[in-house]
Amino acid sequence: MNTMCLVNLNKGDRKTRNLLELIDKLERDKALSYKEWVKLIKGESPEIRDYACAKASAVRDAVYGRDIYIRGLIEISNYCKNDCLYCGIRCSNRNADRYRLNKEEILDCCAQGYELGFRTFVLQGGEDPHYTDEVMVDIVSSIRALYPDCAITLSLGERTMESYRRLREAGADRYLLRHETANEEHYGKLHPANLSCSNRKQCLYNLKELGYQVGAGFMVGAPYQTAENLAEYMLFLKELNPAMVGIGPFIPHHDTPFADFEAGTLEQTIFFLALIRLMLPGTLLPATTALGTIDPKGREKGFDAGANVVMPNLSPKDYRKKYELYDNKIHTDSEAAENKRQLEKMVEAASYRIAAVRGDSKNM
Ligand code: 5AD
Question: Which of 84, 115, 227, 364 could disulfide-pair with 41, CB 3.0 to 4.6 Å?
Answer without folding.
Answer: 227
